[in-house]
Design brief:
single chain; 55% helix; globular
Length: 293
């Protein structure tokens, strides 16, 4: 029997010493396994906590240095909060107002249109909206996506056809086309708004525009001046409101990117080569070198 077990390489039946040894071994093995598990999970949790802290720290720094990170946090609720605060602070909207939103196709005007549309659903003072675009006469302007956006929300949309581009760039050949273009565009816009029976017009000027306009006035007019949140136009008897006055441009960009709003690029040849663009770049450089301002 003994040789048979050896031939099969099987251990002898256990005795008291064998049981004692196995109990000690089992306890030691369990203790070591539990210790190693605690060490492992402690290391993992500590590493994740430190990594999370570093990521949050870097993300906060990134939000200060650039505007792209803002698009992750600029939700519709935050936009409505800023817009309603501006509307309430400056009494921009009254009961029964018929408000026209000037739509250029850019990020600012589309953000304003969507914000006022959502605000009209719950604001205690009832108002109605229409959207108006002044077509300057450029051939490569496609407004189909804006038509669809307004149609999906039952917002009346009017396009005013003009020949402003031909007058400014071909007939007059202006050295500073923006000034004449802005005057003619506002005139055509105001006429269309009055014909639609509106008493107010909403411009999509934001906080950055306020500062840039002030710097433009200082550099090129020699005075400190910028536009007001609410302006009454005596000649046309229209009231201009600016509900985005508490929003930064970076926040507008974040909102547009988050909700994939169909922005139409301006076909104007002077786009990006204006005095306002120069002042914007100058302020950007000042913000990098003098963060405290």
């Amino acid at each position: 029997n003994k040789y048979w077990r050896q031939w099969l390489r099987m251990p002898l039946p256990p005795n008291e010493n064998t049981y004692y040894f196995l109990n000690r071994t089992s306890f030691t093995h369990t203790f070591l396994c539990n210790s190693l598990c605690l060490i492992y999970y402690g290391f993992v949790l500590t590493t994740r906590r430190n990594l999370s802290f570093l990521l949050k720290k870097n993300s906060r720094q990134y939000k200060i240095d650039t505007s792209k990170r803002m698009e992750l946090i600029m939700t519709l609720q935050k936009v409505l909060s800023r817009v309603r605060q501006a509307v309430d602070d400056y009494h921009m909207i009254e009961e029964g107002d018929r408000i026209a939103v000037g739509i250029s196709g850019g990020k600012d005007s589309l953000t304003l249109l969507l914000a006022l549309y959502e605000l009209s659903k719950f604001y205690p003072k009832h108002f109605t909206l229409i959207a108006v675009t002044v077509d300057l006469g450029f051939l490569n302007l496609n407004l189909d996506e804006i038509r669809t956006l307004c149609a999906d929300r039952n917002i009346p949309y009017t396009i005013v056809d003009t020949s402003i581009a031909q007058i400014v760039f071909e007939d007059r050949k202006e050295d500073n086309p923006c000034s004449l273009c802005a005057k003619m565009r506002k005139g055509a816009l105001n006429d269309a708004i009055k014909a639609a029976g509106c008493n107010k017009i909403a411009y999509a000027h934001h906080e950055d525009d306020v500062v840039e306009t002030m710097m433009l006035s200082l550099f090129y007019e020699g005075r400190l001046h910028t536009f007001s949140p609410v302006t009454h136009l005596d000649k046309t008897d229209l009231t201009v409101i600016r509900p985005l006055i508490y929003m930064r441009e970076s926040e507008v960009i974040g909102f547009v990117h988050k909700y994939q709003i169909p922005v139409v690029k301006s076909p104007c040849p002077a786009d990006g080569h204006t005095r306002r663009e120069y002042v914007k770049e100058l302020l950007g450089k000042l913000n990098l070198s003098l963060i405290h301002i």
